[in-house]
Predict the 3D structure of the following.
Amino acid sequence: MFEQRVLPHPGTAWALRTFRGPDGGLRLLTGGSKAVRAWDAATGEQVTVFDTDWPGTHDFAVCHPDGGTPVLAVATENGVWWHDAITGVAIGGDESITDMIWGMAVARMPDGTQTLFGAGHGHPFVIHRWDAATRQALPDLGSHDDHIVAVSVIALPGRDPIVLATGWSHTIHRWDPTTGLQVGPPLVGHKGIAHWMKAITLAGGRTLLVSGDSAGEVRRWDLLTGEPVGTPIQAHPGAATVLPLWVGGRAQLLTSGDDDVVRRWDALTGELLGEPAAGFDPVLLTFGGEQAIATAGPGGVRIAHFGLT
């Protein structure tokens, strides 16, 4: 039986990520402005302390290049900084891109290589790309009208991945990373800056794109057609993050916001489910088939069941 626990963290941990250690065990990365730690998610033991001498930190991503040692990529005000995700030691990387990087995403490409995507905040407002194995820059993707603050990659069976980017223009753009072409028209409707994008595939095979914005609104779209699905969900009074997941055969959304609570919704109907729980930026953990949720907060990172039955 899984034991609920709190992992202490210096300052506030505002970013949680998961990756596999060299033994195959699940590790939880807790990142913030003052400290970045990696924990054994099953035991709660701290296993890695990262040097945090970065010029401003906006996001974190863990790459698994060619099945080798996982690498931590840090989005900073001066490009991407790289660390060995197991030892925490800084390693070399590309220094040709000095743009301020906000959101990041990593994905396996059709040719088997792994690519890191970074939201370029400065002009010319492009999606930067790096080869995760060599950490060298690849050609930019896309061209946007304003600052980009978030990027996401969604892989669909039998199709090339779709890269999504959004920013100050309040619109979501879809790109084919293989051809470099835009996929359909931009998705328009958010009142605030849409800064969080995830996807969930429903029982019938339809994939929903779920996006949260700086006004606390969550919207759902058909990923391929770009058509809105249902009415917007006013999930929180401030910026909303979204975690799609399946619970008991039901597609659900976990959202968090500036009110420091996590709420649960039916992914298709938008119905509010259960009671809110404390925390923000939820991530899903699985231990031997048993699910739990990790949420960040001022007192550390809480791992609990959160009603996942």
